[in-house]
Amino acid sequence: MSWEDKVRKVEPYVPGEQPDAKDMIKLNTNECPYPPAPAVKDCLWSMDYDRMRLYPNPDVLPLRKALAQYHGLDTEQVFVGVGSDDVIDMAFLTFFNSDIPVLFPEISYSFYKVWAELYRIPYATKPLDKDFHIVPADYKNANGGIIFPNPNAPTGVLESVDTVEEIIAANPDSVVMIDEAYVDFAGEGASVLPLIDRYENLLVIRTFSKSRAMAGARIGYCMGSRKLISCLEAVKFSVNSYTMNTPAIEMGVVSVKDDAYFKEIIGRIVNTRERMKKELKALGFSMPDGKGNFVFAKHEKIPAKKIYTALRERNIFVRFFDTPLLNDRLRITVGTDEEADRLMAALKEIVEGA
Ligand code: PMP
User: Fold this and answer.
1) Which residues have any ligand 1 atom within 6 Å of their CB?
2) Architecture of domain 3-36+260-353
3) How far apart are CA 172 and CA 99, in angstroms?
4) Tens digit of each residue's pLDDT (9 = 90 or more) over 143-188
5) pLDDT tens, 87-128?
6) Measured in angstroms, how far is the CA atom of residue 112 from the centroid of ligand 1?
7) Which of 25, 123, 267, 275 could staple 316 via S-S, CB 3.0–4.6 A?
8) Furthest-apart CA atoms within the chain: distance in Å
């Protein structure tokens, strides 16, 4: 057996590209078009560079405390990581450790499959219904755990708290993870966070990358019972004690403290999203009533790949997933109103010229 036969073989997740084009409109990775809270800038600029000599706080207490206070929880109910990808990665490693398959939707965040394969966790995917909704009955048989995003990605479809609770209640013997990367765009009452008091096995995952406009800082977190969080901490301290860097911890804390700005940019994005849906429909697109910071649109006549390429030629980047289940649609991040104007003008030209 050669050394190559002994190597762990993985098919990695492919993130959306980060092009280096000038004057581009970047609507391909669900980033926020607005800057982080103003205090984040002050925090960055006033940072003492000599602090870089020292390791950061291994327990990331300042940020966990700020988040716990914001959500009305105990610090021991919050776990933070290097983006929610890191949090979910740790959570797969910690909670999905059974011979029975873990369940997630067939159309979902495509990284779940990659982590399952990386850690050799058996998994099974479940189809969505014709309107892209989860079918709760599919998640009621014995399983090794459950994860799905709510709102889902890349569809943007939101399941009600009642539907999600039905799934959690049917699974007292598994950890159920709800990936709420986009929940801040889905309106009041969309989150299942209040349920963590009643379900010890529920983990709710969030990120600073979308609604807090801090994808570059790499901050994600999750919330759950003290027991769940202590299991995660044990695994984290078995991998890397210092996951979060000092500037990220400090910037995260100040971001959480500016709730007015947070709500303001979310409001703007939601308004632009609704406007984009209306204007896309007028151009012959259809889409589910997405609740994230993106739309998942299909044109009635023109293939998605053709539109994707034509937009790219105009320096407008959107996401095209070249897989059989998704290749008839484009996932378009909601930008500023000005970016939406330019996107719509380009799409009008493409549609009329087809
Ligand atoms: N979950 C979902 C559903 C996502 O779309 C993303 C963004 N790609 C993530 C988690 C990870 O985001 P981040 O690591 O930037 O927090």
Assistant:
1) 83-85, 109, 149, 153, 179, 181, 207, 209, 215, 220
2) Alpha-Beta Complex (3.90)
3) 17
4) 999 999 999 999 999 999 999 999 999 999 999 999 999 999 999 9
5) 999 999 999 999 999 999 999 999 999 999 999 999 999 999
6) 11
7) 25
8) 61
Residue 9 token pair = 């073989």
Determine the residue of 31, 104, 111 to mutate for testing ligand 1's pocket, defined as the one with the most ligand atoms within 8 A of the Cβ atom.
Answer: 111
Among 13, 14, 29, 84, say which to mutate for ligand 1: greatest number of ligand atoms within 8 Å of CB. Answer: 84
What secondary structure letter does DSSP report for 54?
Answer: S
pLDDT one-digit tens code per residue, 305-340: 999 999 999 999 999 999 999 999 999 999 999 999
* Chain length of the chain: 354
The count of other CB atoms within 10 Å of the CB of residue 201 is 20
pLDDT digits (tens, 9 = 90+) for 76-86: 999 999 999 99
- For residue 149 the two structure tokens come to 């995003």
Cα 149 to middle of ligand 1, angstroms: 9
Domain 39-258 maps to which CATH number in 3.40.30.10, 3.80.10.10, 3.30.470.20, 3.40.640.10?
3.40.640.10
Do 3-36+260-353 and 39-258 come out as alike in CATH topology?
A: no
Q: How far is CA 102 from CA 171, 180, 345, 350, in A?
A: 12, 19, 44, 42
Q: Given the CA of residue 182, which atom of ligand 1 is nearest to it? A: 3
Query: What residue segments make up the domains of the chain, in order of their start?
Result: 3-36+260-353, 39-258
Question: Distance of CA 85 to CAs 15, 64, 81, 114, 247, Å?
Answer: 11, 17, 8, 11, 19
